Amino acid sequence: MGRLDGRVAIVTGSGRGIGAEYAKALAAEGAKVTVTDIVDTENTVNIIKQAGGEAMGIKCDVTRPDDVKALVSETVDAFGKLEIMVTNAALFADLKQRSFLEIDEDEWDRVMQVNTRGVFTCVKAAVTEMKKNGYGKIINIASGTVFKGTPMLLHYVSSKGAMVAFTRALSREVGGDGITVNCIAPGLTMSEKVVGDPQWTAVKDNNTASRAIKREEVPEDLLGTVVFFSSAESDFITGQTLVVDGGSAMH
Q1: DSSP for 148-164?
Q2: Contact of 250 with 243, CB cutoff 8 Å
Q3: Helix (H, G, I), strand (E, B) or coil at 9
Q4: Element containing residue 116 per DSSP (H, E)
Q5: In the chain, where does DSSP find H-type helix?
Q6: Whether pTM exceeds 0.70
Q7: Which of 24, 69, 133, 220 is the most exposed place for a label (fewest CB within 10 A)?
Q8: Residue 105: CB atoms within 10 Å
Q9: Mean per-residue pLDDT for 172-199?
């Protein structure tokens, strides 16, 4: 038996990268998974199905409330309920490291629109459905940069700091409905969008050196945490942020 047998999950931003790994991990533990992204989801869905899991793909822009409502509705229509929402969709790898003085207001607003308002929109739609069954798991994604004060990405770090506050406050609003809200804060992870990018290659060695565990972080390092927060094992844990970065940021 899988730890998530019979559960239904949505993972945003799961067409590729770390999000795809989250979706595959939940499916491997028995969850039925809706894979959603603004990019094609077919590859992730096919990998899950070939491994014996159950999944479907839906294109969704998390900044569009109508898209998100349709995402939740179609998931419930197909799988009967919704218990797990992993709000992974975010802008990161395509952002350029630079002084905050060089970040214009349009770029700042776009990062906040996706990384914070997009989560807000997804959670509203998910919680509305979860309340019907008196149970649910919201898993947000912050970043170890929040606890280290990482420079040159002020909009990104600010948006991920918001996820820590969002998680704490929301957990108190929905705890009485049987819904837990927790957060994962990864370190710099060698996902497909980071590997080979010169700006991240330039900082990865110093990042690795800052860790208690002296190696690069890979997507697989995050999977145990996302499964744990999705499972019954974490039913009495809420409002928490767990840093998974090999011991670089400790709080």
Answers
A1: HT-SS-HHHHHHHHHHH
A2: yes
A3: strand
A4: none
A5: 17-28, 42-50, 65-79, 105-112, 118-133, 145-148, 154-174, 198-209, 223-230
A6: yes
A7: 220
A8: 7
A9: 89
> Measured at the alpha carbon of residue 35, what is the angle toward residues 34 and 38, in degrees to the nearest 5?
130
Residue 116: both structure tokens together: 């914070």
Question: Known catalytic residue: 22?
Answer: no
How far is 47 from 55, CA to CA, in rounded Å? 9
∠ at Cα 183 (84, 187), nearest 5°?
125
Domains defined along the chain, listed by start: 8-244 (3.40.50.720)
Please tell me the distance from the alpha carbon of residue 238 to that of residue 139, in angstroms, as a whole number.
10
Crossing angle (nearest 10°) for helices 17-28 and 223-230: 50
What pLDDT, in 10s, does the model give residues 30-61? 999 999 999 999 999 999 999 999 999 999 99
User: Smallest Cα–Cα separation from 96: which of 208, 200, 186, 185?
Assistant: 200
Of the listed 22, 92, 147, 156, which one is catalytic? 156
Q: Is the pLDDT of residue 99 over 80?
A: yes
**Helix, coil or strand: residue 56:** strand
Q: What's the rounded mean pLDDT across residues 222-243?
A: 98
